[in-house]
């Protein structure tokens, strides 16, 4: 069979890798670079040294992402390729020197103090409840259609604290307003914060020494029976007898037996809308909403609190209805670089090196209702859905899980699939 894949992010490339050798594939990607939200920016620092920092996916949890970790090992990425760093947060109102909260998103020792001083009791209580309850929502299998506010509004926490801390965290990640964050799926929010709940130690994450986009390059390099077409966005899918044709943005057609759509919902809608049986999938895809954000790499700590002792790995500035993050990367020689949300800022950093636009899927409860409908439609007429439109969480682990599901349907005897799911 020849499988058409739309989308060259981690999901599309991993699927091509899983079916490689068993089926031929043609992969269309709208951007000129493969990797999707894996976007590594290389730059020269003030001392002439080559550096790399992430505009997209900053880090992963290899311990918490077993499927993803297996893929990386199969690509030859061992311990020496990864950098482990602590994960901490500072949340502060824009222009204020002392933060509302500083520390890891884990329960704190009541008597413990950081150099910046302990968080306030209200802040400690709010954050501790979030991470502990997040783990509980998962264990109790709370429905993904329950909005965050439906749960947290009942907590004995001051309304202002809920807004500035609990809603600020998801708002900073998904690029939405604080009000929109309150309406997101509680389980979707929990997926990003539950991992820290069982421990009172500083959580850590991993990033690739030579850039997260190295994952995309290694996946592409191992493909033997795939035709990769970066810079060629999918436009339409036509049915030709019992087969299908993919049509790219230049009008080139690609005969295929099945198509896997690992692209945003509007691109998937455009691709399938001319098919005679597309109405149920189009209706489901109409429930997806996105936020538009711009990320920028800069060398000056332009948006951070004035005192260095208040800086964390992730620094969130509250500005009206927005929670705007700046991620700090410290290199092994002590030098630093920063990645900030640039939209909704009054001004830009003085040493801005590069910027890139992203769209983030807002995981409203309606998305998970739509996912169930799309799951029922998987494979009908040779059309499959994968990637973030089928993922239960905004993680690489969840994206990989969606293509494992599709690969089981397309090539259940794939050696790579067997090795991946057995690990």
Structure description:
The protein is globular. The protein has helices spanning 10-19, 66-74, 121-139, 148-152, 159-166, 168-174, 178-182, 186-193, 214-221, 265-272, 279-285, 365-376, 396-410, 415-422, and strands spanning 2-6, 24-29, 40-44, 50-54, 82-86, 89-93, 101-103, 204-208, 226-230, 234-240, 243-248, 253-256, 258-261, 290-298, 314-319, 322-330, 336-341, 352-361, 383-385. It contains 14 helices and 19 strands. It has two domains: 2-38 and 213-288 and 363-422, FAD/NAD(P)-binding domain; 80-207 and 290-361, no CATH class. The protein has a seven-stranded mixed sheet with strand order 7-6-15-16-17-14-18, covered by helices on one side. A five-stranded parallel sheet has the order 9-2-1-13-19, covered by helices on one side. α2 packs across α13 (396-410), α3 crosses α5 (159-166) and α11 (279-285) packs antiparallel against α12. It has 423 residues and is of the alpha/beta class. Residues 108-116 and 196-200 have low confidence and may be disordered. The longest helix is centred in the N-terminal third of the chain and has 19 residues, at 121-139. It starts with a strand and ends with a helix.
């Amino acid at each position: 069979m020849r499988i058409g894949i739309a989308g060259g992010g981690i999901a599309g490339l991993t699927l091509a890798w899983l079916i490689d050798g068993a089926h031929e594939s043609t992969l269309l990607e709208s951007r000129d670079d493969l990797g999707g939200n894996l976007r590594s920016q290389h730059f020269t620092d003030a001392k002439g040294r080559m550096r790399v920092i992430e505009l997209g996916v900053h880090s992963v949890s290899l311990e918490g992402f077993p499927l993803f970790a297996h893929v990386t090992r199969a690509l030859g990425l061992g311990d020496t390729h990864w950098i482990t760093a602590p994960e901490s947060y500072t949340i502060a109102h824009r222009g204020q020197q002392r933060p509302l909260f500083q520390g890891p998103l884990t329960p704190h020792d009541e008597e413990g103090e950081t150099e910046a001083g302990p968080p306030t009791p209200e802040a400690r209580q709010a954050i501790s409840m979030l991470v502990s309850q997040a783990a509980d929502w998962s264990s109790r299998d709370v429905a993904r259609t329950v909005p965050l506010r439906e749960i947290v509004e009942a907590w004995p926490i001051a309304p202002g604290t809920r807004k500035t801390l609990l809603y600020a965290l998801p708002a900073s990640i998904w690029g939405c307003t604080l009000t929109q964050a309150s309406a997101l799926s509680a389980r979707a929010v929990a997926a990003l914060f539950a991992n820290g709940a069982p421990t009172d130690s500083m959580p850590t994450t991993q990033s690739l020494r030579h850039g997260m986009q190295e994952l995309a390059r290694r996946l592409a390099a191992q493909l033997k029976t795939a035709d990769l077409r970066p810079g060629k966005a999918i436009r339409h899918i036509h049915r030709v007898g019992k087969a299908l044709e993919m049509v790219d943005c230049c009008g080139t057609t690609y005969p295929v037996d099945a198509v896997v759509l690992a692209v945003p919902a509007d691109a998937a809608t455009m691709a399938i809308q001319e098919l005679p049986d597309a109405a149920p999938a189009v209706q489901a895809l109409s429930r997806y909403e996105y936020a538009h954000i711009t990320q920028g790499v800069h060398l000056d700590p332009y948006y951070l609190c004035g005192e260095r002792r208040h800086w964390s790995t992730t620094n969130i500035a509250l500005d009206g209805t927005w929670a705007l993050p700046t991620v700090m990367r410290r290199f092994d020689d002590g030098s630093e670089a920063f990645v900030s949300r640039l939209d909704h800022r009054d001004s830009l950093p003085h040493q801005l090196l590069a910027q890139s636009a992203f769209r983030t899927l807002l995981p409203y409860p309606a998305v998970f209702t739509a996912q169930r409908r799309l799951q029922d439609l998987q494979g009908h007429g040779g059309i499959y859905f994968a990637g973030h439109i089928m993922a239960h969480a905004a993680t690489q682990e969840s994206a990989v899980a969606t293509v494992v599901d599709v690969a089981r349907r397309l090539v259940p005897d794939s050696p790579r699939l067997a090795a991946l799911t057995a690990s």
